């Protein structure tokens, strides 16, 4: 129990800062050759692949095998209406992606610990945990830089709001990069970053019509232009511009505005990513995507063949759940069905 909680808690803290793993699944604009868009997320010794309406999950078990499953993504009339509204749909998809990823992150922690049937808790507790985690992350990565920037500007005697916002942005970037680099020194997170690279390689192969094989995956880079790391960069840029329009506020209103403004900033960033996704070959779009690619030097690392196998199994499960066909010549590593959770 202590190991499970420790692993789950450590990775739950990455939900906002490492949205690069979860938000890859929401930038679904560049269509692969299969006709459907796929994204993914690295888990603990596993990978989640997401299609338009289903996910495929492959996890490495304690005996060295691969357990795989797939499931439909919950949708409803209200959700469909919300996702048609610009800006609002970005906040909706962000929350949905984080909730789905967090649930499977905790499940993967159980499987990694050797217990496939352990329930990860009810929906209410999951929502509460995710909300608190996001609140803490927003305070660390968004609110504290704003307060620190205000104090620095005041100490230096500057009065220009633009200078304050520039310092705010630099602090956000510095804290984020420092955090991602620091947690990457952990062996557990290092493995997750390597699974992140395997996930990207599988998506590259699929989008370029290549078979899903170890050899094919190894030829592709671990960075991907639709990774959610780009989302993080766009969020920082949008927040700088948006909160500059708000003007200079006292500390308490600053905290309130930063927390309340996250859905708006996330929604605007999502719309920008959708726009960039339509013009991926455009020189300006590629230049704007470059910082996100650069940051992936931290959040992705070179995977081994076993990690490639996990990516292949997860993506195959997602494609087949969507009713699609995997590219001809693809490998299918040996796997078994993931045991269902116990009903208590």
- Name the helix and strand elements from N-terminus to C-terminus, one letter apiece: HHHEEEEHHHHHHHHHHE
Strand numbers in spatial order across the main sheet:
1-2-3-4-5
Our count of domains comes out at: 1
Count of DSSP H/I helices: 13
Radius of gyration over C-alpha positions, nearest whole angstrom: 20 Å
The largest β sheet comes out as: 5 strands, mixed
Helices and strands: which structural class? alpha+beta
Fold and architecture overview:
Helix content is 62%, strand content 8%. It has a 5-stranded mixed sheet with strand order 1-2-3-4-5. It has helices spanning 2-12, 14-17, 19-22, 77-82, 88-112, 123-156, 161-183, 187-207, 214-218, 229-246, 251-278, 283-299, 305-321; strands at 39-43, 46-50, 54-60, 66-72, 336-337. The longest helix has 34 residues, at 123-156.
């Amino acid at each position: 129990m202590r190991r499970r909680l420790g692993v789950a808690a450590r990775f739950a803290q990455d939900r906002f800062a490492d949205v690069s793993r979860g938000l890859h699944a929401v930038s679904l604009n560049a269509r692969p050759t299969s006709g459907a868009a796929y994204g993914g997320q690295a888990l603990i010794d596993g990978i989640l692949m997401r299609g338009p309406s289903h996910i495929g999950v492959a996890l490495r078990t304690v005996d060295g095998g691969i357990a795989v499953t797939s499931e439909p993504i919950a949708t409803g009339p209200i959700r469909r209406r919300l996702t048609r509204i610009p800006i609002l749909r970005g906040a909706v998809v962000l929350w949905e992606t984080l909730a789905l990823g967090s649930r499977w992150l905790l499940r993967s922690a159980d499987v990694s610990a050797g217990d496939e049937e352990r329930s990860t808790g009810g929906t209410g507790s999951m929502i509460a945990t995710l909300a608190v985690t996001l609140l803490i992350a927003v305070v660390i990565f968004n609110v504290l830089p704003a307060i620190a920037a205000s104090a620095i500007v005041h100490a230096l005697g500057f009065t220009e709001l633009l200078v304050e916002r520039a310092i705010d942005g630099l602090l956000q970037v510095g804290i984020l990069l420092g955090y991602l680099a620091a947690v990457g020194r952990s062996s557990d997170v290092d493995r997750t970053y390597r699974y992140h690279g395997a996930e990207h390689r599988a998506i590259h192969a699929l989008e370029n019509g290549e078979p899903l094989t170890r050899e094919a995956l190894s030829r592709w880079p671990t960075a991907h232009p639709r990774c959610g790391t780009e989302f993080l960069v766009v969020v920082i840029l949008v927040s700088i511009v948006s909160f500059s329009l708000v003007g200079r506020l006292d500390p308490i209103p600053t905290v309130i505005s930063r927390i309340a403004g996250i859905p708006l900033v996330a929604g605007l960033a999502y719309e920008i990513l959708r726009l960039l996704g339509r013009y991926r070959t455009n020189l300006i779009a590629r230049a704007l995507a470059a910082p996100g690619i650069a940051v992936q030097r931290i959040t992705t690392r070179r995977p081994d063949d076993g990690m490639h196998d996990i990516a292949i199994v997860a993506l195959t499960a997602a494609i087949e759940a969507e009713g699609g066909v995997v590219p001809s010549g693809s490998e299918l590593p040996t796997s078994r069905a993931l045991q269902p959770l116990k009903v208590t």
